[in-house]
Amino acid sequence: MQSHAKVVIVGGGMMGVGLSYHLAEEGWTDVLLIEKGELTSGSTWHAAGQCPSFIGNYSMAKIHHYSNTLYPRLEELTGHPTGWHGCGGIRLATTPEEVDWFRHVAGFAANVGFQMEIIGPDRIRELNPWLDTDGILAGAHTTMDGHVDPASACNAMAAGARQLGATIVRRNRVTGINRLPSGEFEVVTEQGNVICEHVVNAGGCYAREVGAWLGVDTPITNMEHQYLVTEPLEEFKGTDVELPVMRDPATAGYYRQEQKAGLVGIYEHHGAKEAWAARGGWPEWESENELFEGDLDRIAPWLEKALERMPIFAEAGIKRIINGAIPHTPDGNPLVGPAHGVRNFWQCCGSSIGIAQGAGCGKYLAQWMVHGDAEINMASVDPRRFGGYADADYTRAKSFDDYHNMFETPLPGREIHAGRPSRVTPLYERLKEKGAVYTEVYGWERPKYFAPAGFVEKLQYRRNNTFDLVAAECRAVRERVGIMDLSSFAKFDVSGPGAEALLDRLTANRLPKKPGGICLTHVLSDGGRIEGEWTITRLADDRFYVLSGAGAERQALDHLRLAAGDDVTIANLTDDYGMLVVAGPKAREVLAPLTDADLSNAAFRWLSGQEITIAGVPVRALRVNYVGELGWELHAPMAALARLYDAIWASGEAHGIADFGVHAVNSLRMEKGYRGFGSELTNEITLIEAGCARFYAPDKGDFRGRDSTEAVRERGIVTQLAYGEVAANDCDIHGGEAVMQGDRVVGVCTSGGYGHATGKSLTFAYVEPGLREGLEVVILGERRAFSCLDEAAWDPTNARQKA
Fold first, then answer.
1. What are the angstrom distances between the C-alpha of 195 and each of 170, 274, 365?
2. Is 449 within 8 Å of 470 (Cβ atoms)?
3. HSE-CB of 13 using CA atoms within 13 angstroms
4. In the predicted model, what is the mean pLDDT of residues 332-348?
5. Could you tell me the residue ranges of all domains in the chain?
6. Cβ pair 603, 523 in contact under 8 A
7. What pLDDT shows up at residue 514?
8. How far is 327 from 350, CA to CA, in rounded Å?
9. Cα gap 778→746, rounded to integer Å
């Protein structure tokens, strides 16, 4: 076996093989994949092989679609069969809310590229004459997907990888990975050691052990999943047309034709079992091709419902039961991207539907590794979307919930309570008593809105019963003053003689020159794509306070720590400091009696920060906010946050102070035309395309991504961000909706919301450059006019913030 390689991939299932194929396709042929058994001998070989197009996450839909377009042509490309069955699929809906979800997904299907139509019971029976359609309202029929023989498809991709120059070694067990002083890795195997620049954890069910060798958390739980195959059915023997794969939330599973037999897979709603539970969920490193004893009693309630839907299956005997381990992550998406804290260590694992995702994950991770960027938004699969809070107990609780609700319709507002609360502030219980309804962001509990006792949110895609509650919170901020616990921000002190030079190299905007200055700036990739958005306050000549969004805590730490020299100290203050937003035209009147600091415009200008005392609490007061009003962010020691809140509330009662949550923040920021990181600002986009040239200073000197951004300006952009008003009815933009001009799809919406102060439904969308007239967006199957705005719908001159 070779002793050196550019990349070593540990694991030879669909995810690892898919990556090796696409790395070689991208030009990195010095790739060595090492598999301890035979290829597919982990989870791949026993998978049912489903390849659905239908999925509610826009980026995941792109990953699935790529896989579904590669597998049908893989035999032609490699000369090896894949067992592709392009029979399509139908997901069933039994409630109006599920039908609306179908309409939402259909709205972005054209952008992604897969074919989908919503069909009624009669058409469903035409496609599957043996299905009992009682209670079914509609079906989401996707025609470009189906299922594949997992082992054949994986081996075909392996053959393609070899043909392109990659090397695959089987029957060689990796026993450890060491980081060398050079920054390279030493991969220790039974057949010798390999030195490489990059290592990829594609360990599947064994991924936790692979990550642990380098001290990296890999938040997965291995779950037992069962499906059964029936004896051959007479009804299938005389037909050449294969049934679509049926997916049925009511039966918690899927069922389809398997040759001339039936196949039924179940995700039980409760009582699921962790694989290798006696070992803490860790499989033996020596095991391979492992199956568990079938347990029909565990899945019986849902299996009975499936057999009621397909009565012909009930008449057939069971030929075999397959019960194998499949990894699940806390949110159900795979782990694809850089591991936190270790340069050039990558994750490509954690996929619970790895056959459908293997090729797509491999393609986009290969782009990221080779070029520094992927062409799709990778935020929903980036392993760093989980932090240290995602310990074994949290991961297990969330993964069980993901398994139990595998076929749950993900309606807006649905909260997953498993594993919660994890990260809370001292205000958590107090705000809960005041009616705070919480959502979870990066483990933090964050108020969504405040509701009266006994309130239950009606989950649906259309405006629901939270509409008036959020409107009242928005009015309070626009007309009086609001207060919000937004402690979830990632917060860092960056100090030392090299601090300014480090931040200047990493970010695109000019840093503030004087203490107290604040700038909004962005971290770019080498290719000029947006990798982070930071607010930086200069506290002293050699000390900066850096803020980032909650979900980007580990990404920001990686940017800072991996680029810092010995002359820079980086302190993560995220858990040490809380933060209250106090905003609204009465904000100064509320805060002034509580501090000796001068809060006037002359003494405390907009976009500046000071270290002051409020109500006896030391505070880093920043005159910025995300809602577009006079106000401050007050960053205070977490232990004193409740005392600070109480003092502000008492002072604000005479001014009509009100609590508000992130739903109101979204409404208010949409009115101000503020772009969101992760929606408008992603790794797909440059600052020029995002309309953020004012935050870009190419003449300040060299910084990461500068040359690539300049190249974009010179050659011209391929997409541009548009902001405007939608002639909505009872549903606002959620993100992913297609933008149309006539019969052409010309763009995609990224986020939206109703502006309660302006009475406008607003959205951001990326569209073809130069397009402004005749645009429409597709909302739940209806085309609605989209009118571009040249300025913010609310206070375009920022007069209120400067008040």
1. 18, 35, 21
2. yes
3. 33
4. 98
5. 4-371, 416-489+575-674, 490-573+677-709, 716-803
6. no
7. 96
8. 5
9. 12
CA distance 15 to 753: 37
**SS3 per residue for 462-520:** CCCCCHHHHHHHHHHHHHCCEEEECCCCEEEEEECCCHHHHHHHHECCCCCCCCCEEEE
Q: What angle do CA 684, 558, 362 make, to 5 degrees?
A: 45
738-741 and 609-614 beta bridge pairing: unpaired
In the predicted model, is pLDDT for residue 635 greater than 90?
A: yes
CA 335 to chain centre: 10
Q: Name the one residue in this structure whose structure tokens are 């982990």.
A: 42
Mean pLDDT of the 483-504 span: 98
Query: Is the model's pLDDT at 1 over the cut of 90?
Result: no
Beta strands at 4-10 and 192-201: parallel, antiparallel or unpaired: parallel
At residue 239 the predicted structure's pLDDT band, cuts being 50, 70 and 90, is confident
Tokens 């019969």 -> residue: 743
The pLDDT score that the predictor gives to residue 494 is: 98
Tell me the HSE value of 663 on the side-chain side, using a 13 A CA sphere.
Answer: 27
In a 3-state reduction of DSSP, which class is residue 298? helix
| Structural tokens at position 286 | 């020596």
Q: Which two tokens stand for residue 610?
A: 């000071």
Instruction: For Cα atoms 368, 360, 222, give the angle at the middle one, nearest 5 degrees.
Output: 100
DSSP assignment of 617-668:
EEEEEE---SSSSSEEEEEEEGGGHHHHHHHHHHHHGGGT-EE--HHHHHHH
Query: Domain spanning 4-371: which superfamily?
Result: FAD/NAD(P)-binding domain (3.50.50.60)
Average pLDDT in the chain: 97
Q: Decide if 490-573+677-709 and 716-803 have a common fold.
A: no
- Given CA atoms 506, 511, 514, 516 in this order, what sign does their dihedral have? negative
CATH architecture, domain defined by 490-573+677-709: 2-Layer Sandwich (3.30)
Taking alpha carbons only, the member of 331, 323, 329 closest to residue 266 is 323
pTM score: 0.97
Residues of the chain with pLDDT > 90, as a percent, come to 98
Instruction: Compute the average pLDDT of residues 427-441.
Output: 98
Q: Describe the crossing of helices 354-371 and 58-78 by its angle, rounded to 10 degrees.
A: 90
How many residues are given for the chain?
803
Separation CA 246–CA 263 (nearest Å) = 10
DSSP class of residue 158 equals H
**pLDDT tens readout for residues 352-375:** 999 999 999 999 999 999 999 999
Tell me the C-alpha distance between 568 and 541, whole Å.
13
> 766: buried, middle or exposed (CB in 10 Å: 19+, 13-18, 0-12)?
buried
Domain 716-803 in CATH 2.40.30.110: yes
Percent helix, percent strand, percent coil in the chain, to nearest 5: 30, 30, 40
Rounded Cα gap, residues 226 and 133, in angstroms: 25
Topology annotation, domain 416-489+575-674:
Gyrase A; domain 2 (3.30.1360)
Q: pLDDT tens digits, residue range 655-696?
A: 999 999 999 999 999 999 999 999 999 999 999 999 999 999
The 3-state secondary structure of 56-72 reads: CCHHHHHHHHHHHHHHH
Residue-wise pLDDT tens digits, 91-113 = 999 999 999 999 999 999 989 99
Cα distance between residue 107 and residue 783, in whole Å: 10
pLDDT at 553: 98
* 286 pLDDT tier (thresholds 50, 70, 90): confident
CA distances from 537 to 204, 583, 620 (A): 42, 19, 10
Q: What letters, b where the CB count within 10 A reaches 16 and e where it falls short, cover 563-575? A: ebeeebebebbbe
Q: What is the dihedral of CA 308, 310, 314, 320, to 10 degrees?
A: -120
Which one, of 590, 605, 584, lies nearest residue 647 by Cα?
590
